[in-house]
Amino acid sequence: MRFLIIFIFLMFNSFAVGAVDIKNLVINKETKKYDGLTFLDAKSNQLNLKDYKGSLVLLNFWATWCAPCKEEMPSLDLLQINQNLNNLKIFPINIGQDNLENSLKFYDDLNIKNLDVYFDSPITLAKKFGLRGIPTSIIFNKEGLEFARIIGSIDFEDEKFVDWLSKYN
Fold first, then answer.
1. Which of 2, 60, 131, 166 is the most buried (most CB within 10 A)?
2. Amino acid 19: pLDDT
3. For the segment 71-110, what is each residue's pLDDT rounded down to a tens digit?
4. Phi, psi of 92, deg, nearest 5
5. Strand partners, 136
6. Residue 21, Cβ neighbours under 10 Å: how many?
7. Are the C-beta atoms of 139 and 149 separated by less than 8 Å?
8. Residue 34 DSSP symbol
9. What pTM did the predictor assign?
10. H-helix or E-strand containing 10?
11. How far apart are CA 16 and CA 112, in angstroms?
12. For residue 122, what pLDDT is reported?
């Protein structure tokens, strides 16, 4: 049992480079490149992540039935208008098979004002990223490379997180 605990500890820590003490944040050892990262906006227009090179991008995967998603969404909404992150573009992508009406009601119930609704209808991104649960947020640098993930919920207004993320702005 001791060896299993040590193994898990070593495996988890092998993913973190320049580790910071932020709950649920995993910093990639090496950046990851993906091709063909597309998702849909509220009008079913297809967006391509490559069109946002030059910006810091956060993809947040959520669903209306997800309690931790509901908990973190208001702080994600405020992160979008944070003055220290003026180059950050947030795409909250609903992967819960919810329609636009349900998604907008979710936003309205939580008083979400600064974020638009996006969808991954065929769940291609969820599969491509190997998501194991939601909420999960994937962070891309200005070159369009994944450099970190947030697995589980987080307070996006946490000062340590905002300070860390602003270094990549």
1. 60
2. 52
3. 999 999 999 999 999 999 999 999 988 899 999 999 999 9
4. -80, 115
5. 61, 151
6. 7
7. yes
8. -
9. 0.86
10. helix 2-14
11. 32
12. 77
pLDDT digits (tens, 9 = 90+) for 25-56: 999 999 999 998 999 999 999 999 999 999 99
* Structure tokens that stand for 75 in this block: 């702080």
Whole-Å CA distances, 75 to 27, 48, 130, 158: 21, 25, 25, 9
The token pair at 16 is: 């973190």
Candidates 86, 97, 87; CA nearest to 40 is 97
The mean per-residue pLDDT over the stretch 140-165 comes to: 96
- In this prediction, residue 54 carries a pLDDT of 96
> Per the structure block, which two tokens stand in for 79?
């992160």
Three-state DSSP at 147 gives: strand
- Residue 47 CB-density burial (10 A; 0-12 exposed, 13-18 middle, 19+ buried): middle
Query: What mean pLDDT, rounded, does the chain reach?
Result: 89
Structural contact between residues 103 and 69, judged by C-beta atoms closer than 8 angstroms: no
Residue 158: other Cβ atoms inside 10 A: 16
Q: If DSSP codes are grouped into helix, strand and coil, which group holds residue 28?
A: strand
Taking a C-beta distance cutoff of 8 angstroms, is the pair 73, 67 a contact?
no
* CATH number for the domain whose boundaries are 2-166: 3.40.30.10
Amino acid in position 122: P
